[in-house]
Structures are given as structure tokens and as C-alpha cells.
Amino acid sequence: MASFCAGNLQQRFGFDGFARAAGWLVHVIEYGEHVADGLKPVTAELFRFWNPDGCIAECGGTDDMLSLADFRSVPTVFLDRHPSTIEKGAVCVTHDSAAIARLAARELLSLGFSAYAFVDWFRPVVWSDERGDAFRRIVEGNGKRFFRHRMLSLSDSDGVDDLARWLSTLPAPCGVFAVNDRAADCVVSAALKAGLEVPRDIAVIGVDNDVGQCENVPVPVSSVALDQDGAGRAAGRLLASMMEGGRVRPDGIAVGALEVVRRASTRRFADRRVAAAVEYIRKHACKGATVPDVVREMGCSRALAYLRFTEAVGHSILEEIDSVRVAHAERLLLDGTMTVDAVGASSGYGSASEFRRAFRRRVGLSPKAFSIAHREGE
Question: Residues 93-122: what's their mean pLDDT?
């Protein structure tokens, strides 16, 4: 049984499942930025207390985190460590900023705007710099105008006012890629304060797909979902190999992003009834919403609802419902903690057979075959 000391795990990076399968006992020590200055003397005490066999340390992309020496020769894997501080022999797992920017850029560029912008984190951090630089290259490579702005803060009114003033100077419509979901929420709030309409004037996308963050704003925010589970599994595999004395590449692994989870902040429809219907489907499809429910939400006749929806979205109401349900089912199947029948029920299907038919029709594989293919591809 192995024991771990892990730091600043604001997200668990999906490594719990790997640890359970390996029979490891995991101890999580969380610390925030406000106590980071006092972390090093605490580390020695933590090691004496837990005597870990291995460690995973999440560094948040900053440049003032722990060094290999702090872990006293205990096998250690760093998550998202600032590249300027990576020492010789250190093993790291990072998120691929270029892959994240590509997904965000494809979502925004598909809107056909002539101008795009990036909002940096309120202080310099490597993941913000990298995402912004990668996004700029893509935007300018596609012949579009590019703008960039660093937030003053996350919470005070001065920060929102400053962001609102800057957004007002952008050519409309403009697609804005915010460094993460917290920043994206600030962009939405600032845009509304500036009298701009989201997504008509400003379309917004964030990163992390933090559902609570993305949903609890006047206009729900589209977001790039990161492969947190993949990062956790990669860190677990690397650490297991190190603990067993195996050879590990010291430059580590870069983990990509999964998908864009679309919400109202990037879905532009001239027809407000269609916009309301799409948002209703996104929120209620997995709760069993039906085509008649959507028609009632649109407030017009069935024939007119079908016509308006298909012309605006490019496919039928039923296809949109199935798209949302199957995407949800795929995420549950990749997680691997639920049976196929339970996944179908959780995704809004009335029976297991209905779920299997819909899934095969959209994915080309049965739910079971999809799960097996995913496991074999790991």
C-alpha cells in the first residue's frame, strides 16, 4: 500500500480511480496561495508525519513552488509546474495549452467574426501566457484581427469596470477566449455592464468546464473541458513506474483537452425562440425532455417550431436532444463508474434499448464497444 502527499489539489485530476485500482492509500494535503510562503518548513513536518512512498504535487503553473529537494528523494510527479522551474530529473504532467487554444479557436472562428480577443489571468502565469500566445497565432494565421487584455482582478468593481471599458473598444461582433471559466464569467458580467449582448456582440468561451461556474451567470458560458482524468491517470502511471524502479522520461507528458461544451455564450441564433429552445434542450434533455416539451418552450405551432429550428440549427429538434444526451452518455462511459443501463437512464432515455439504438446511430458503436475501445486505447 502506498501513501501520497499531494499539494494544492483544487482539482483532483482524476487520479483517485487509478489509486483505488492500485490499492494505494492517498492522503491529500491542500494549501492555497495565501500560505504558499510558509509551505517549505511545513513540508518536512508532513513527511515525518505521513512518511509517504510517493508524491504528486500540483503546482498551478506558478514559478515559486516546491523543488525536488523538498521531497527528499521520494518519487515525485509534478502537475502543471512552471517550465522555468523544472529541474533536471523532475517528472511533470502538464496540460497542452496549444490543444486547448485550438479547440477554443475552432469554436469561435466557426462564428465567422473578423475580430477575436484573449483575456489573460489577472497575474502572469504560464498557462495564461501559453494559451493566449497559441490563440493569437491561430487567429492571426486565419487572417483575423487579434486583441489582448489582462484582467485587473477577479472580484472588485474596478476590475469589472476596467474589463467593461476594454470590451466596449472591441469591434463587434467579437469572439473572446478567456483563460478559464472564472475569467469568462467576469467577461460576461463586464459585457452586460457595458450594454453589450452575449453572444450577439461578444461571444465568450472559457476553460475547465466548471459546471457551477459556467451555469451560474446570466448567460451560461461555453467551455473547453480538460482531460483531468487523463492527467490523473498519467501521473499515477508515472509515479507507479518510479516507485517500482522503472525508467521514466524526465520531461514528462503533455495531456490534451477533450471537447468544447457548448452553452449560450457561443450559440448565436437570430431567432430568439430557437435560442431559447437550444438552451432548454441543453439543460433538460438528460432529464427526459421531449420534442413536445421543446415546442411548448418555443411558444408556436409544432410545424412552425420544426421549420424555425431546422433552418437555424441545421437539424431537427430530436437530433439536438439526442446529441446532448449522447454527449453526456459518452462522458459517463469514459468515467467508467456506471453500468451501461445506468448511463442510459442518467442521459434521459426511457429504456436501455432506446439508449443503445440512439448511441449506435450517432457514434457507430454500441455503448459497451465504445467503453472497451476507450479502455484499450489508454
Answer: 94
Alpha-helix residue ranges (DSSP H) falling in the chain: 15-22, 39-50, 97-109, 126-141, 157-169, 181-193, 211-215, 228-243, 272-284, 291-298, 302-313, 317-335, 340-346, 352-363, 367-377
Query: Coil, strand or helix: which one is 61?
Result: coil
The CA distance from 79 to 57, in Å, is 6
The label of the residue with cell 509515479 reads 239
Q: Taking the model in full, what pTM does it have? A: 0.74
Residues in contact with 140: Cβ distance below 8 Å, sequence separation at least 6, in sequence order: 146
Output 32 or 347, whichever has higher pLDDT: 347
3-state secondary structure at position 202: strand
User: In DSSP terms, which residues pair with 95 in a beta bridge?
Assistant: 255
How large is the angle between the packed helices 317-335 and 367-377, nearest 10 degrees? 50
Look-up: residue for cell 461582433? 173
Give the DSSP per-residue string, 203-225: EEEEES--HHHHHSSSSPPEEEE
Q: CA 277, CA 295: separation in Å to the nearest integer?
A: 8
Burial-class residue 75 by CB neighbours within 10 Å (0-12, 13-18, 19+). Answer: buried
Domains and CATH numbers, the chain: 3-95+228-258 (3.40.50.2300), 97-225+260-266 (3.40.50.2300), 272-377 (1.10.10.60)
Confidence class of residue 238 from pLDDT cuts 50, 70 and 90? confident
Nearest in space to 370 (alpha carbons), one of 336, 319, 324: 336
Asked if residue 159 lies in contact with residue 187, where contact means CB atoms within 8 angstroms, the answer is no
* Lookup: cell for 176: 473572446
CA distance 133 to 124: 13
Average pLDDT value for residue range 107-122: 95
The residue with greater pLDDT, 4 or 69, is 69
Total count of residues recorded for the chain: 378
For residue 34 the three cell numbers come to 495565501
**8 A C-beta contact, residue 33 and residue 61:** no
